[in-house]
Amino acid sequence: MPLPFARQVAAFNRRVTNPILGPIVWYLPRFGRVVHVGRRSGRQYVAPMLAFPSRDKRRLTFALTYGPDAEWVRNALAAGTCVFESRWSGRLRLVDPRLIHDPQRRAMPWLVRRGLGLMQVNDFLEATVASEAEATARR
């Protein structure tokens, strides 16, 4: 069962939690921020996010705790790209985002998998880390 007040929680986080978390995500492992462009407004938005790299480090996966209809997800899918910035990875241009429905949560570390299971999070966004040439060509 999805979080009953997901939209209200998301709105609260956007206005209150995200501005507080913004400066400290640089110091938390796997945390960073997703930079995406609004599909209607064309404005740039930033959201603190937790990313999980694939074993080969060619993809990042994000657990969609607010579901696949979150604005940043829709923006990334519409644009076909977004950026993930963090202290541990630097600035990564992500391309070819895609939604994944995976009740087994295979891309997640076992402890995270268990927590997401308790929250019944089964949807993820996976994107490929662009090579230097791809990142330059898409700008």
Question: Which short descriptors sum up this protein?
Answer:
29% helix, 7 strands, seven-stranded antiparallel beta sheet, 139 residues, 4 helices, single chain, Pnp Oxidase, Chain A, alpha+beta
Short note summarizing the structure:
With 139 residues, the chain is of the alpha+beta class. The protein contains four helices and seven strands.
Characterize the structure shown.
It is a single chain. The chain is an alpha+beta fold and 139 residues long. Strand 1 and strand 2 (44-50) form a beta hairpin. The protein has a single domain, classed as Pnp Oxidase, Chain A (Roll). The chain is built from four helices and seven strands, in the order αββββαββαβα. The chain has a seven-stranded antiparallel beta sheet with strand order 2-1-5-6-7-4-3. The protein is globular. The mean pLDDT is 86.
